[in-house]
Amino acid sequence: MSHTAHRTEQNRPAPRRQAVANLWTRWTRRHGHAPPTDDTGARPPSGADAGVDAGAGRAPGIEDSALWRMRTTVRDEPGSLAALCTALAELRVDILSLQTHPLADGTVDEFLLRAPGPLTGSELSGAVTAAGGSATWCERADAHDLVDAPTRVLGLATRTAADSAELPLALRQLLGRCTIRSLPAPTAPGAGGGPEDVPVEGVLEETAMRLRAPEGGLISIERPYLPFTPTEFARARALVELDARLGPRVPRGQDVLSLTEDGLTLSESGDLTVGRADTGDLEAAKAMHDRCSARTLGLRYHGPVRDADRYLNHLLSPRYGRTLAVRTASGRIVGLGHLLWDGDETEVALLVEDAWQRRGIGTELLGRLVTMAAETGCEHVYAVTQASNTGMVATMRGLGLPLDYQIEEGTLVITARLDPAAVAAPRPYGERIGRE
Protein backbone atom coordinates (compact mmCIF):
# COMPACT_ATOMS: atom_id res chain seq x y z
CA MET A 1 0.00 0.00 0.00
CA SER A 2 1.29 3.45 -0.80
CA HIS A 3 2.03 6.05 1.85
CA THR A 4 -1.09 7.84 0.63
CA ALA A 5 -3.14 4.84 1.67
CA HIS A 6 -1.18 4.67 4.94
CA ARG A 7 -2.03 8.25 5.77
CA THR A 8 -5.73 7.94 4.92
CA GLU A 9 -6.42 4.54 6.46
CA GLN A 10 -8.74 4.98 9.45
CA ASN A 11 -9.41 1.38 10.41
CA ARG A 12 -5.86 0.39 11.27
CA PRO A 13 -5.03 -0.03 14.98
CA ALA A 14 -3.68 3.19 16.48
CA PRO A 15 -0.18 1.88 17.39
CA ARG A 16 0.44 0.78 13.79
CA ARG A 17 -0.82 4.09 12.39
CA GLN A 18 1.42 5.98 14.80
CA ALA A 19 4.46 3.88 13.88
CA VAL A 20 3.95 4.57 10.20
CA ALA A 21 3.34 8.26 10.91
CA ASN A 22 6.60 8.49 12.86
CA LEU A 23 8.52 6.84 10.04
CA TRP A 24 6.90 9.16 7.51
CA THR A 25 7.80 12.27 9.54
CA ARG A 26 11.46 11.29 9.70
CA TRP A 27 11.35 10.31 6.03
CA THR A 28 10.07 13.66 4.83
CA ARG A 29 12.58 15.52 6.98
CA ARG A 30 15.42 13.49 5.53
CA HIS A 31 14.26 13.87 1.92
CA GLY A 32 12.69 17.33 2.10
CA HIS A 33 13.47 19.88 -0.59
CA ALA A 34 15.90 22.64 0.13
CA PRO A 35 18.38 24.77 -1.78
CA PRO A 36 21.50 22.83 -2.79
CA THR A 37 24.36 23.18 -0.32
CA ASP A 38 27.80 24.61 -0.99
CA ASP A 39 31.14 22.80 -0.51
CA THR A 40 31.03 23.35 3.26
CA GLY A 41 27.53 21.93 3.59
CA ALA A 42 26.04 25.26 4.73
CA ARG A 43 22.76 26.32 3.20
CA PRO A 44 22.54 29.66 1.43
CA PRO A 45 20.69 32.23 3.56
CA SER A 46 16.95 32.25 3.01
CA GLY A 47 15.90 35.09 0.71
CA ALA A 48 19.47 36.03 -0.12
CA ASP A 49 21.64 35.52 -3.17
CA ALA A 50 23.08 32.03 -3.07
CA GLY A 51 26.02 30.36 -4.77
CA VAL A 52 26.19 26.59 -4.97
CA ASP A 53 29.26 24.47 -5.48
CA ALA A 54 27.97 20.98 -4.77
CA GLY A 55 28.05 18.09 -7.25
CA ALA A 56 29.93 17.31 -10.38
CA GLY A 57 29.06 19.27 -13.48
CA ARG A 58 32.02 19.32 -15.78
CA ALA A 59 31.20 19.64 -19.45
CA PRO A 60 32.21 16.41 -21.19
CA GLY A 61 35.45 16.62 -23.15
CA ILE A 62 36.34 20.12 -21.94
CA GLU A 63 39.19 20.32 -19.46
CA ASP A 64 39.02 22.64 -16.48
CA SER A 65 35.47 23.84 -17.16
CA ALA A 66 32.09 23.23 -15.58
CA LEU A 67 28.45 23.70 -16.54
CA TRP A 68 26.20 25.86 -14.38
CA ARG A 69 22.51 26.73 -14.35
CA MET A 70 21.90 30.23 -13.02
CA ARG A 71 18.75 32.27 -12.47
CA THR A 72 18.69 35.94 -11.52
CA THR A 73 16.20 38.81 -11.56
CA VAL A 74 17.13 42.05 -13.36
CA ARG A 75 15.44 45.41 -13.73
CA ASP A 76 13.32 45.87 -16.84
CA GLU A 77 15.37 48.68 -18.34
CA PRO A 78 17.86 49.04 -21.20
CA GLY A 79 21.40 47.85 -20.44
CA SER A 80 20.57 45.61 -17.46
CA LEU A 81 21.18 42.36 -19.36
CA ALA A 82 24.28 43.82 -21.02
CA ALA A 83 25.76 44.56 -17.58
CA LEU A 84 25.29 40.92 -16.55
CA CYS A 85 26.88 39.63 -19.76
CA THR A 86 29.86 41.93 -19.27
CA ALA A 87 30.37 40.70 -15.71
CA LEU A 88 30.27 37.08 -16.88
CA ALA A 89 32.67 37.78 -19.74
CA GLU A 90 35.19 39.25 -17.29
CA LEU A 91 35.17 35.89 -15.49
CA ARG A 92 35.69 34.10 -18.83
CA VAL A 93 32.22 32.55 -18.57
CA ASP A 94 30.55 31.43 -21.79
CA ILE A 95 26.76 31.85 -22.08
CA LEU A 96 25.41 28.72 -23.80
CA SER A 97 21.70 29.55 -23.60
CA LEU A 98 19.38 32.16 -22.14
CA GLN A 99 15.66 32.05 -21.32
CA THR A 100 13.70 35.08 -20.12
CA HIS A 101 10.71 34.98 -17.77
CA PRO A 102 8.94 38.37 -17.79
CA LEU A 103 7.55 39.65 -14.48
CA ALA A 104 5.45 42.69 -13.65
CA ASP A 105 8.42 44.62 -12.25
CA GLY A 106 11.42 42.98 -13.89
CA THR A 107 12.67 39.91 -15.75
CA VAL A 108 13.98 36.57 -14.50
CA ASP A 109 16.89 35.50 -16.71
CA GLU A 110 17.82 31.82 -16.72
CA PHE A 111 21.28 30.99 -18.07
CA LEU A 112 23.18 27.83 -18.96
CA LEU A 113 26.85 28.71 -18.50
CA ARG A 114 30.22 27.13 -19.13
CA ALA A 115 32.65 28.50 -16.57
CA PRO A 116 36.32 27.91 -15.70
CA GLY A 117 36.60 24.88 -13.42
CA PRO A 118 38.06 26.72 -10.40
CA LEU A 119 35.23 29.29 -10.38
CA THR A 120 32.88 28.72 -7.44
CA GLY A 121 29.15 29.30 -7.30
CA SER A 122 29.66 32.01 -4.70
CA GLU A 123 32.03 33.89 -7.00
CA LEU A 124 29.66 33.51 -9.93
CA SER A 125 26.58 34.74 -8.05
CA GLY A 126 28.59 37.51 -6.38
CA ALA A 127 29.68 38.92 -9.72
CA VAL A 128 26.13 38.80 -11.07
CA THR A 129 24.76 40.52 -7.96
CA ALA A 130 27.37 43.27 -8.27
CA ALA A 131 26.24 43.79 -11.88
CA GLY A 132 22.63 44.37 -10.84
CA GLY A 133 21.12 40.91 -10.51
CA SER A 134 19.03 40.00 -7.48
CA ALA A 135 17.65 36.80 -5.94
CA THR A 136 20.45 34.98 -7.77
CA TRP A 137 20.39 31.18 -7.63
CA CYS A 138 22.79 28.76 -9.30
CA GLU A 139 23.69 25.10 -9.28
CA ARG A 140 25.91 22.72 -11.22
CA ALA A 141 24.42 21.47 -14.49
CA ASP A 142 25.23 18.44 -16.64
CA ALA A 143 25.11 17.42 -20.30
CA HIS A 144 21.32 16.90 -20.19
CA ASP A 145 20.88 20.66 -19.75
CA LEU A 146 22.53 21.27 -23.13
CA VAL A 147 19.25 20.40 -24.87
CA ASP A 148 17.49 23.63 -25.84
CA ALA A 149 14.23 24.46 -24.06
CA PRO A 150 11.80 23.98 -27.00
CA THR A 151 13.26 20.56 -27.81
CA ARG A 152 13.08 19.50 -24.17
CA VAL A 153 9.46 20.65 -23.79
CA LEU A 154 8.43 18.84 -27.00
CA GLY A 155 10.12 15.67 -25.73
CA LEU A 156 8.23 15.88 -22.44
CA ALA A 157 4.96 16.43 -24.32
CA THR A 158 5.65 13.34 -26.42
CA ARG A 159 6.25 11.24 -23.31
CA THR A 160 3.06 12.55 -21.73
CA ALA A 161 1.07 11.79 -24.88
CA ALA A 162 2.25 8.17 -24.88
CA ASP A 163 1.45 7.33 -21.26
CA SER A 164 -0.79 8.88 -18.59
CA ALA A 165 1.69 7.89 -15.87
CA GLU A 166 4.33 10.18 -17.38
CA LEU A 167 2.62 13.46 -16.41
CA PRO A 168 4.12 13.81 -12.88
CA LEU A 169 7.58 12.90 -14.21
CA ALA A 170 7.30 15.31 -17.11
CA LEU A 171 6.29 18.12 -14.74
CA ARG A 172 9.23 17.34 -12.47
CA GLN A 173 11.69 17.45 -15.37
CA LEU A 174 10.11 20.62 -16.71
CA LEU A 175 10.26 22.50 -13.40
CA GLY A 176 13.38 21.02 -11.79
CA ARG A 177 13.55 19.76 -8.23
CA CYS A 178 10.06 20.01 -6.82
CA THR A 179 7.42 18.00 -4.99
CA ILE A 180 4.46 16.91 -7.13
CA ARG A 181 1.43 15.23 -5.61
CA SER A 182 -1.76 14.01 -7.29
CA LEU A 183 -4.62 14.53 -4.84
CA PRO A 184 -7.95 12.76 -5.37
CA ALA A 185 -11.17 14.70 -5.09
CA PRO A 186 -12.77 14.59 -1.59
CA THR A 187 -15.25 11.74 -1.21
CA ALA A 188 -17.55 13.74 1.09
CA PRO A 189 -19.56 16.56 -0.56
CA GLY A 190 -18.52 20.01 0.64
CA ALA A 191 -15.40 18.68 2.39
CA GLY A 192 -13.22 21.35 0.77
CA GLY A 193 -9.78 21.01 -0.72
CA GLY A 194 -11.21 19.71 -3.98
CA PRO A 195 -11.01 20.93 -7.58
CA GLU A 196 -14.00 23.23 -7.06
CA ASP A 197 -11.75 25.32 -4.78
CA VAL A 198 -9.32 25.96 -7.66
CA PRO A 199 -10.28 27.99 -10.76
CA VAL A 200 -10.11 26.29 -14.15
CA GLU A 201 -6.92 28.19 -15.01
CA GLY A 202 -5.20 27.01 -11.80
CA VAL A 203 -3.52 28.93 -8.99
CA LEU A 204 0.07 30.22 -8.79
CA GLU A 205 1.30 31.23 -5.32
CA GLU A 206 5.02 32.08 -5.36
CA THR A 207 6.60 28.67 -4.64
CA ALA A 208 3.45 26.57 -5.18
CA MET A 209 0.96 25.96 -7.93
CA ARG A 210 -2.29 24.01 -7.99
CA LEU A 211 -3.91 22.70 -11.14
CA ARG A 212 -7.09 20.75 -11.79
CA ALA A 213 -6.28 17.13 -12.62
CA PRO A 214 -7.99 15.58 -15.66
CA GLU A 215 -9.70 12.87 -13.56
CA GLY A 216 -11.26 15.40 -11.17
CA GLY A 217 -8.67 15.76 -8.42
CA LEU A 218 -5.84 18.24 -7.98
CA ILE A 219 -2.18 18.38 -8.93
CA SER A 220 -0.11 20.19 -6.29
CA ILE A 221 3.42 21.35 -7.16
CA GLU A 222 5.77 22.89 -4.61
CA ARG A 223 9.33 24.19 -4.91
CA PRO A 224 10.10 26.03 -1.66
CA TYR A 225 13.59 27.19 -2.54
CA LEU A 226 12.78 28.93 -5.86
CA PRO A 227 9.58 30.81 -6.82
CA PHE A 228 7.78 29.73 -9.97
CA THR A 229 7.50 32.26 -12.78
CA PRO A 230 4.36 32.88 -14.86
CA THR A 231 6.18 31.30 -17.82
CA GLU A 232 6.75 28.08 -15.87
CA PHE A 233 3.13 28.12 -14.72
CA ALA A 234 1.94 28.42 -18.33
CA ARG A 235 4.14 25.50 -19.42
CA ALA A 236 2.85 23.30 -16.60
CA ARG A 237 -0.76 24.18 -17.48
CA ALA A 238 -0.11 23.28 -21.12
CA LEU A 239 1.18 19.80 -20.19
CA VAL A 240 -1.80 19.14 -17.91
CA GLU A 241 -4.21 20.33 -20.61
CA LEU A 242 -2.56 18.00 -23.13
CA ASP A 243 -3.00 15.11 -20.72
CA ALA A 244 -6.67 15.98 -20.19
CA ARG A 245 -7.43 16.23 -23.91
CA LEU A 246 -5.87 12.84 -24.71
CA GLY A 247 -7.71 11.00 -21.94
CA PRO A 248 -6.61 7.76 -20.20
CA ARG A 249 -3.93 5.79 -22.06
CA VAL A 250 -1.53 3.02 -21.08
CA PRO A 251 0.99 1.24 -23.36
CA ARG A 252 -0.13 -2.35 -23.87
CA GLY A 253 3.07 -4.11 -24.94
CA GLN A 254 3.79 -7.43 -23.24
CA ASP A 255 6.84 -9.64 -22.69
CA VAL A 256 6.52 -13.41 -22.76
CA LEU A 257 7.88 -15.15 -19.67
CA SER A 258 8.16 -18.93 -19.89
CA LEU A 259 7.89 -20.15 -16.32
CA THR A 260 9.21 -23.69 -15.97
CA GLU A 261 10.23 -25.99 -13.16
CA ASP A 262 12.80 -28.76 -13.70
CA GLY A 263 12.53 -28.15 -17.44
CA LEU A 264 8.77 -28.82 -17.57
CA THR A 265 6.03 -26.28 -18.10
CA LEU A 266 4.07 -25.81 -14.89
CA SER A 267 0.43 -26.73 -14.70
CA GLU A 268 -1.96 -24.07 -15.99
CA SER A 269 -0.14 -23.75 -18.92
CA GLY A 270 2.37 -22.40 -21.05
CA ASP A 271 3.74 -18.94 -20.97
CA LEU A 272 3.19 -16.09 -18.59
CA THR A 273 3.13 -12.52 -19.85
CA VAL A 274 4.05 -9.33 -18.04
CA GLY A 275 2.72 -5.97 -19.15
CA ARG A 276 1.14 -2.74 -18.00
CA ALA A 277 -2.17 -2.75 -16.15
CA ASP A 278 -4.64 -0.03 -15.19
CA THR A 279 -8.14 0.42 -13.79
CA GLY A 280 -9.54 -1.64 -16.66
CA ASP A 281 -7.96 -4.64 -14.92
CA LEU A 282 -9.73 -3.94 -11.63
CA GLU A 283 -12.00 -7.03 -11.67
CA ALA A 284 -9.12 -9.35 -12.58
CA ALA A 285 -7.05 -7.89 -9.73
CA LYS A 286 -9.94 -8.37 -7.28
CA ALA A 287 -10.25 -11.98 -8.44
CA MET A 288 -6.59 -12.49 -7.60
CA HIS A 289 -7.25 -11.03 -4.14
CA ASP A 290 -9.96 -13.66 -3.67
CA ARG A 291 -7.45 -16.41 -4.42
CA CYS A 292 -4.83 -15.00 -2.00
CA SER A 293 -4.60 -16.09 1.60
CA ALA A 294 -5.31 -13.70 4.46
CA ARG A 295 -1.62 -13.81 5.41
CA THR A 296 -0.48 -12.80 1.91
CA LEU A 297 -2.95 -9.89 1.78
CA GLY A 298 -2.02 -8.85 5.31
CA LEU A 299 1.70 -8.74 4.49
CA ARG A 300 0.97 -6.62 1.43
CA TYR A 301 -1.58 -4.13 2.75
CA HIS A 302 -0.66 -3.95 6.48
CA GLY A 303 -4.29 -3.62 7.54
CA PRO A 304 -7.61 -5.49 7.72
CA VAL A 305 -7.84 -8.00 4.87
CA ARG A 306 -11.44 -6.98 4.17
CA ASP A 307 -10.17 -3.55 3.07
CA ALA A 308 -7.70 -4.85 0.46
CA ASP A 309 -10.01 -4.31 -2.52
CA ARG A 310 -10.48 -0.64 -1.58
CA TYR A 311 -6.89 0.19 -2.47
CA LEU A 312 -6.92 -1.29 -5.97
CA ASN A 313 -8.56 1.58 -7.84
CA HIS A 314 -5.88 3.97 -6.56
CA LEU A 315 -3.02 1.53 -7.12
CA LEU A 316 -4.06 0.71 -10.69
CA SER A 317 -4.59 4.34 -11.73
CA PRO A 318 -1.85 5.57 -14.10
CA ARG A 319 -2.31 8.99 -12.49
CA TYR A 320 -0.39 7.76 -9.43
CA GLY A 321 2.25 5.58 -11.06
CA ARG A 322 2.74 2.45 -13.13
CA THR A 323 1.49 -1.08 -12.57
CA LEU A 324 2.82 -4.31 -14.06
CA ALA A 325 0.67 -7.44 -14.10
CA VAL A 326 1.80 -11.03 -14.63
CA ARG A 327 -0.88 -13.07 -16.42
CA THR A 328 -1.27 -16.73 -17.25
CA ALA A 329 -2.14 -17.93 -20.75
CA SER A 330 -5.79 -18.03 -19.69
CA GLY A 331 -5.69 -14.34 -18.69
CA ARG A 332 -5.67 -14.71 -14.90
CA ILE A 333 -3.55 -12.17 -13.03
CA VAL A 334 -1.17 -13.94 -10.64
CA GLY A 335 1.14 -11.07 -9.73
CA LEU A 336 1.04 -7.27 -9.45
CA GLY A 337 3.91 -4.84 -9.11
CA HIS A 338 3.36 -1.14 -8.47
CA LEU A 339 5.67 1.84 -8.99
CA LEU A 340 3.97 4.75 -7.21
CA TRP A 341 4.83 8.45 -7.47
CA ASP A 342 4.64 9.68 -3.86
CA GLY A 343 5.49 13.38 -4.04
CA ASP A 344 9.22 13.48 -4.64
CA GLU A 345 9.60 9.85 -3.53
CA THR A 346 8.95 6.61 -5.44
CA GLU A 347 7.47 3.52 -3.80
CA VAL A 348 7.59 -0.08 -5.04
CA ALA A 349 5.08 -2.72 -3.92
CA LEU A 350 4.50 -6.37 -4.87
CA LEU A 351 1.74 -8.95 -4.53
CA VAL A 352 2.03 -12.52 -5.85
CA GLU A 353 -0.76 -15.06 -5.54
CA ASP A 354 0.06 -17.86 -3.06
CA ALA A 355 0.09 -20.66 -5.63
CA TRP A 356 2.67 -18.79 -7.71
CA GLN A 357 5.05 -17.66 -4.96
CA ARG A 358 8.71 -18.71 -4.73
CA ARG A 359 9.02 -19.05 -8.49
CA GLY A 360 10.81 -15.79 -9.25
CA ILE A 361 7.76 -13.71 -10.19
CA GLY A 362 8.35 -11.16 -7.44
CA THR A 363 12.01 -10.86 -8.37
CA GLU A 364 11.09 -10.36 -12.02
CA LEU A 365 8.52 -7.68 -11.22
CA LEU A 366 10.79 -5.80 -8.82
CA GLY A 367 13.68 -5.80 -11.29
CA ARG A 368 11.49 -4.34 -13.99
CA LEU A 369 10.00 -1.71 -11.66
CA VAL A 370 13.45 -0.60 -10.51
CA THR A 371 14.62 -0.37 -14.11
CA MET A 372 11.60 1.77 -14.96
CA ALA A 373 12.32 4.01 -11.97
CA ALA A 374 15.97 4.44 -12.98
CA GLU A 375 14.96 5.27 -16.56
CA THR A 376 12.75 8.09 -15.27
CA GLY A 377 15.61 9.59 -13.27
CA CYS A 378 14.58 8.40 -9.79
CA GLU A 379 17.53 8.31 -7.40
CA HIS A 380 16.00 5.78 -5.01
CA VAL A 381 12.91 3.68 -4.41
CA TYR A 382 11.44 2.41 -1.15
CA ALA A 383 9.21 -0.44 -0.05
CA VAL A 384 6.97 -0.44 3.04
CA THR A 385 6.41 -3.87 4.55
CA GLN A 386 6.40 -5.78 7.82
CA ALA A 387 9.58 -6.91 9.51
CA SER A 388 8.24 -10.47 9.36
CA ASN A 389 7.95 -10.36 5.55
CA THR A 390 11.24 -12.14 4.89
CA GLY A 391 10.29 -12.76 1.24
CA MET A 392 10.07 -9.05 0.43
CA VAL A 393 13.27 -8.35 2.33
CA ALA A 394 15.09 -11.06 0.37
CA THR A 395 13.69 -9.77 -2.92
CA MET A 396 14.92 -6.24 -2.18
CA ARG A 397 18.34 -7.59 -1.20
CA GLY A 398 18.43 -9.52 -4.47
CA LEU A 399 18.60 -6.22 -6.37
CA GLY A 400 22.27 -5.95 -5.42
CA LEU A 401 21.82 -2.24 -4.67
CA PRO A 402 22.74 -0.26 -1.51
CA LEU A 403 19.86 -0.56 0.96
CA ASP A 404 18.78 1.49 3.95
CA TYR A 405 16.47 0.03 6.62
CA GLN A 406 14.18 1.86 9.06
CA ILE A 407 11.95 -0.08 11.43
CA GLU A 408 9.52 0.80 14.20
CA GLU A 409 6.91 -1.40 15.88
CA GLY A 410 7.07 -4.00 13.13
CA THR A 411 6.79 -1.58 10.17
CA LEU A 412 9.84 -1.71 7.91
CA VAL A 413 10.86 0.79 5.23
CA ILE A 414 13.59 -0.44 2.86
CA THR A 415 15.18 2.11 0.56
CA ALA A 416 17.31 1.18 -2.45
CA ARG A 417 19.67 3.76 -3.92
CA LEU A 418 19.61 3.55 -7.71
CA ASP A 419 22.57 3.75 -10.03
CA PRO A 420 21.23 3.79 -13.61
CA ALA A 421 24.48 2.29 -14.91
CA ALA A 422 24.23 -0.61 -12.46
CA VAL A 423 20.52 -1.40 -12.80
CA ALA A 424 20.03 -4.36 -15.10
CA ALA A 425 17.83 -3.97 -18.15
CA PRO A 426 14.61 -6.00 -18.33
CA ARG A 427 15.03 -9.62 -19.38
CA PRO A 428 14.59 -10.20 -23.12
CA TYR A 429 11.44 -11.76 -24.53
CA GLY A 430 11.08 -15.45 -23.90
CA GLU A 431 13.55 -15.71 -21.00
CA ARG A 432 12.40 -18.00 -18.23
CA ILE A 433 11.79 -16.92 -14.66
CA GLY A 434 13.84 -19.14 -12.41
CA ARG A 435 12.84 -20.22 -8.93
CA GLU A 436 13.76 -17.84 -6.09
- Percentage of residues in strands: 25-35%
C-alpha-based Rg, rounded: 24 Å
The name of the CATH superfamily of the largest domain reads Gcn5-related N-acetyltransferase (GNAT)
Shape: elongated
Instruction: Order the strands across the largest sheet as they lie in space.
Output: 9-12-13-14-15
**Sheet with the most strands?**
5 strands, antiparallel
Relative helix content: 25-40%
Number of strands: 18
List low-pLDDT spans. Answer: 1-62, 260-269, 424-436
Mean pLDDT: 77
Tally of separate helices:
12
What count of domains describes the coordinates? 3
- CATH level-1 class of the largest domain: Alpha Beta
Q: Which sequence of SSEs, written as H and E, runs from N to C?
A: HHEHEEHEHHEEEEHEEEEHHHEEEHEHEE
Secondary-structure arrangement, i.e. CATH architecture of the largest domain: 3-Layer(aba) Sandwich
Class by helix and strand content? alpha+beta
Distance between the termini: 23 Å
Q: Kindly identify the CATH topology of the largest domain.
A: Aminopeptidase
Overview features:
single chain, 436 residues, alpha+beta, Aminopeptidase, 12 helices, 18 strands, elongated, disordered N terminus
Summed up, what is this model?
This protein is an alpha+beta fold and 436 residues long.
Q: Your description of this structure?
A:
This protein has 436 residues and is of the alpha+beta class. The chain has three domains: 3-30 and 251-417, Aminopeptidase; 65-141, ACT domain (Alpha-Beta Plaits, 2-Layer Sandwich), CATH 3.30.70.260; 149-185 and 195-246, no CATH class. Helices cover 30% and strands 26% of the residues. It contains twelve helices and 18 strands. Strands 9-12-13-14-15 form a five-stranded antiparallel β-sheet, with helices on both faces. The radius of gyration is 24 Å and the shape is elongated. 36% of the residues are buried.
